[in-house]
Specification:
heterodimer, A: mainly alpha, two-stranded antiparallel sheet, elongated, B: alpha/beta, Rossmann fold, six-stranded mixed beta sheet, 6 helices
């Protein structure tokens, strides 16, 4: 077909091709204006449409960003309110626990002080020692011995009396001193009581001060959120991302734990439900093991929900306390039963593994070897089978964090995607516009020979009236030269396009 | 507050989706890379004619390997090839392993015991070799099991020697069954003209292929892993 078309004008392919080329160039030259209009309109239409689409996407992205921010701030506000409420509850508990007994504490302090004062007063009263008596005794002792024995006897009697009196006074003084010391000794426990009581008061006040500082911090944060500050939004976003990754990591760990749990009970399950029945590509025993694990996780979710640790199910959260307590008991019982079943299954798995190993050894022709300390892995598996369900129950906590932070992360991802789409649309629009311009130039490149002739003819026809028509000719020439015309897209887009096209029409044969 | 309500609703939706995804992904994880479980049925024919009885210890090794490989729901039978093998009495032991692993293990032990008794009590080989009769008996057994993968293991030198009057030269229908010739030993006359050995193998191959079955020869018993395709 192609060969026939090629040789339609002449038997020589070259001549025929040349004729085809001339015809093609002529046709293209004749349709130049329409082709230029087609390229220009197409390029502009694509550019405008994609720009509009890009703007719409950007607007959507802005709305979504705003909504994400609003949700984030609202969640942050609620979290902050809860934190403040919790702090106030703690302060209230502290005050109720420690400071509610302040009157009795005050009474204790007052009593202690009163007793200390009384003891102090009692300790200050002392029996005075007669100061002149010692001088009298010294004077009498220093008297010279007289020859009169009666006088000497009198003096000796006086001396003895004075000494006796002095000794009695000294004894009274010592007794009084002892009593004072007794009073002072009694003051010791009072001081200790006073010190302990004051220590308690100090601890309580310190604790209160710390709580107050924390409330201040929370209030600042809350105020920042209420004022819709960027810093608060960034902080909440960062916190949300951190939560997402941490909870994601914990969930992966939990999934690994679930996998181990599955391996632990899948084999013995085949002993209960059979190892050959299948649903699709899955063994019934594997499905049964999976169902048990999933029920355990569900029970864990309900348990933590009933304990109000998580808040994933509003129905459970809004139950009255009596019903909630019942639910705690029911879920905990079920979880314990499931854990016990798992422990027994784990033990059965060990027995099956032992049996299988013994059979393999028998088939291999070696004697059955009794492994020592075989009870250790058996007990280990049983304990693991019992503990893993309870460990899996706690997956509700990271799951809740993950779900809450997932909203933020998904919002961010969608915003990022929308931004990328907007940029891509803009880029494609620009590329299409420039591609159309390039096509226009390529078109002119193909028909450059007739264009050159046309320019030459016009130049000759306008040469005598160069002075009068220089400017219009120049203008016409400019419109014919596509690169010059297309290099100013702003002018092409305005209303002055029509006269330019009229000029072009004039020069077209 | 509305935003928070929306967010809570979204969180619940996300959680539902997550739970379903977890269920499905765990299921997929468990079944990942596993093709649907296929039941297998293996029928092993042991040649007890002439000097081939000396090879019985190898047959026992193969049978032990099969016992270790086959699982719950699979079927296994052991039969001898003697002068007239198209007979239920030639089946030494047969079992379809129970769905419970512990019971299946007991069945395997019992099977092993039967096989050991047979090999220890066999003192004299049969006068003739009716391989076709044994194969026909195997086909009946395997078709009854309705297993997904059926295999006949022929532990023999493939030299058929029928008693007078026995008719076995007719096509056999082994469609959907793989026939594996094991330990095909060379006879004395094969050494004189090796083409006899090749012709013997080719004859059996043609017979099986024409009957709609698959044919394989495994002489290297170190490669027992190729014997039965593992699931």
């Amino acid at each position: 077909m192609f060969q026939q078309l090629l040789t339609v004008w002449s038997d020589s392919a070259a001549i025929s091709a040349a004729i085809w080329l001339v015809l093609l160039v002529t046709v293209l030259y004749l349709g130049r204006q329409q082709a230029h209009q087609l390229f220009s309109t197409t390029g502009r239409a694509i550019f405008t449409a994609l720009r509009l689409a890009s703007r719409s996407v950007l607007r959507l992205e802005q709305r979504l960003s705003q909504r994400n921010r609003d949700v984030l701030m609202d969640l942050g506000r609620m979290a902050s309110e809860k934190a403040i409420e919790r702090e106030f509850t703690r302060v209230s508990t502290l005050v109720a626990r420690d400071l509610a007994h302040y009157p009795s504490l005050h009474r204790t302090l007052a009593d202690a002080i009163e007793k200390i004062e009384a003891d102090y007063q009692a300790s200050s009263l002392s029996a005075p020692l007669p100061p002149a008596w010692s001088d009298v005794v010294d004077t009498i002792s220093a008297l010279p011995k007289s020859a009169d024995p009666a006088l000497n006897k009198i003096l000796d009697n006086i001396k003895d009396a004075i000494e006796d009196s002095h000794e009695e006074t000294l004894k009274a003084f010592q007794k009084a001193t002892l009593e004072r010391h007794g009073h002072l000794a009694k003051m010791h426990p009072q001081w200790r009581t006073l010190k302990t009581t004051m220590g308690k008061v100090e601890t309580t006040l310190d604790s209160l001060e710390e709580r107050t500082r924390m409330i201040d911090g929370q209030m600042d944060r809350y105020e920042s959120i209420r004022n819709n500050e960027d810093a608060a939004a960034n902080s909440l976003l960062s916190s949300s991302l951190t939560q997402f990754f941490i909870s994601g990591l914990v969930l992966i760990i939990a999934a690994m734990g679930g996998l181990i749990n599955f391996q632990l009970i899948a084999l013995p399950m085949s002993e209960m439900v059979g190892g050959t029945a299948t649903i699709g590509a899955l063994r019934m025993s594997d499905i049964a093991a999976l169902v048990i694990i999933l029920i355990e996780i569900a029970m864990g979710l309900f348990l933590l929900e009933s304990l109000r640790i998580t808040h994933l199910f509003p129905v459970i959260g809004s139950m009255d306390d009596r019903m909630r307590r019942r639910m705690i008991v029911v879920t905990l019982t079920l979880l314990t039963i499931l854990a016990t079943i798992e422990a027994s299954l784990a033990y059965m798995r060990d027995l099956l593994a032992l049996d299988r190993a013994a059979l393999q050894q028998s088939l291999a022709g070696v004697g059955v070897v009794e492994a020592q300390f075989r009870w250790i892995p058996s007990i280990g598996q049983m304990v693991m089978g019992f503990i893993l369900p309870f460990a899996l129950a706690f997956v509700a906590i990271p799951l809740e964090s993950f779900i809450h932070s997932l909203r933020t992360v998904l919002g961010m991802i969608v915003v990022g995607l929308l931004r990328t789409v907007a940029v891509a649309l803009r880029l494609v629009g620009n590329l299409a516009s420039h591609a159309c311009k390039i096509l226009t130039h390529l078109y002119d490149l193909i028909i450059m020979v007739p264009l050159g002739i046309e320019r030459l003819v016009r130049h000759r026809s306008t040469a005598p009236d160069l002075t009068d028509t220089a400017k219009p000719a120049e203008k016409t020439s400019d419109t014919n030269e596509a690169p010059a015309a297309s290099s100013k897209p702003k002018r092409n887009r305005n209303t002055k396009v029509e006269p330019v096209l009229g000029d072009t029409q004039e020069v077209t044969p | 507050m509305k935003l928070v309500t929306d967010s809570a609703r979204l969180s619940r939706h996300i959680m539902t989706v997550l739970l379903i995804t977890a269920l499905l992904s765990t299921g997929l994880l468990a079944g990942c890379g596993e093709s649907p479980i296929k039941s297998r049925a293996v029928y092993m024919l042991i040649d007890t004619s002439g000097t081939y009885t000396e090879q019985l210890d190898k047959a026992e090794t193969i049978m032990n390997y099969l016992l270790a490989t086959l699982d719950s729901g699979d079927s296994l039978a052991l039969a001898r090839i003697d002068s007239a093998s198209f007979n239920e009495e030639d089946i030494i032991a047969k079992a379809t392993f129970d769905v419970r692993p512990s019971t299946a293990n007991d069945q395997k032990r019992l099977f092993q015991h039967h096989m050991q008794t047979f090999t220890s009590e066999l003192v004299r080989g049969s006068a003739h070799t009716d391989i076709t009769g044994g194969v026909l008996q195997a086909i009946d057994f395997l078709n009854e099991t309705e297993a997904d993968e059926k295999t006949i293991l022929v532990f023999s030198d493939l030299e058929e020697d029928l008693p007078e009057g026995h008719v076995r030269d007719f096509p056999i229908d082994v469609s959907g069954i793989e026939v594996v010739a094991l330990n095909v030993t060379k006879l004395t006359r094969d050494n004189i003209d090796p083409r006899d050995y090749e012709n013997r193998l080719n004859d059996w191959q043609n017979r099986v292929m024409e009957g709609g079955g698959q044919w394989r020869v495994i002489n290297d018993l170190e490669r027992l892993d190729r014997l039965v395709a593992m699931n």
